[in-house]
């Protein structure tokens, strides 16, 4: 479906048809969001059945970070996205799933912080580990909610920002996918002062394949 939309988009650009171009760009973004959602639900069922397997390879972390950044920038123009690259490093893991972890965290940072604020994506290499973090200047999360955030289907009941849609599975998947990679997700947050989600992965990860 995406390739048909992209094809039509190229035609609209060639024919200088700004209205159709705008509509097709929106359709492309929505299709991408739907794809992410379907992937999340498929991963949820796999985890529940104990059938989540990792497709392990060695990949460049820098490339993955840059891909996540450019995907984010095409999906959202409402926030300032900053990226602090780490040194070039190859890590062993499931590239697609680490990508889903990053996409989920950056997606949340955008979703739960006001337009115009900054979302920073960082990675740093030390002692054979890569430390990642995603920081926002959003609504923050209370200590009580932080304790339950990674539970399946858990969503914070919050009146401060009106209704934001979601299923409460993103962070559950993030936590489970990182566990399979020998990592752990952490949150540091104060109400109304923003949040930082961080995790560490060994450069040569100890990975359970099933
Ligand atoms: N960066 C953040 N700032 C503030 N609250 C957050 C942030 N990230 C997550 N939350 C809170 O944690 C809850 C759980 O997040 P999670 O990503 O699991 O689900 P969701 O975003 O509601 O839905 P989805 O399944 O589509 O990701 C959210 O509903 C939100 O209340
Ligand atoms: Mg989410």
TrEMBL record:
CDD domains: HATPase
Record-linked Gene3D superfamilies: Histidine kinase-like ATPase, C-terminal domain (3.30.565.10)
PROSITE patterns for this protein: HIS_KIN
Catalysed reactions, as listed in the record: ATP + protein L-histidine = ADP + protein N-phospho-L-histidine
UniProt keyword terms in alphabetical order: Kinase, Phosphoprotein, Transferase, Two-component regulatory system
Pfam families attached to this UniProt entry: HATPase_c (PF02518)
GO CC term, one of those recorded: plasma membrane
Example GO biological process: cellular response to phosphate starvation
Domain of life: Bacteria
EC number: 2.7.13.3
GO molecular function: phosphoprotein phosphatase activity; phosphorelay sensor kinase activity
Residue span, Histidine kinase domain: 1-205
PANTHER family in alphabetical order: PHOSPHATE REGULON SENSOR PROTEIN PHOR
Protein name per UniProt: histidine kinase
Origin species: Pedobacter psychroterrae
């Amino acid at each position: 479906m995406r390739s048909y939309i992209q094809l039509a988009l190229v035609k609209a650009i060639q024919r200088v048809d700004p209205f159709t171009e705008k509509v097709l760009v929106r359709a492309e973004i929505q299709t991408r969001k739907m794809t992410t959602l379907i992937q999340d639900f498929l991963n949820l069922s796999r985890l529940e059945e104990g059938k989540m397997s990792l497709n392990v390879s060695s990949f460049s972390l820098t490339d993955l970070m840059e891909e996540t950044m450019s995907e984010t920038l095409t999906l959202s123009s409402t926030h300032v996205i900053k990226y602090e690259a780490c040194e070039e490093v190859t890590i062993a893991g499931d590239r697609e799933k680490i990508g889903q972890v990053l996409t989920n965290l950056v997606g949340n940072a955008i979703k739960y912080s006001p337009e115009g604020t900054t979302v920073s994506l960082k990675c740093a290499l030390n002692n054979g580990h890569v430390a990642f973090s995603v920081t926002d200047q959003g609504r923050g999360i209370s200590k009580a909610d932080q304790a339950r955030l990674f539970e399946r289907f858990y969503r914070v009941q919050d009146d401060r920002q009106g209704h934001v849609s979601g299923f409460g599975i993103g962070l559950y998947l993030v936590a489970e996918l990182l566990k399979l990679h020998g990592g752990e997700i952490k949150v540091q947050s104060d109400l109304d002062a923003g949040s930082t989600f961080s995790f560490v992965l060994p450069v040569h990860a100890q990975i359970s394949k099933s």
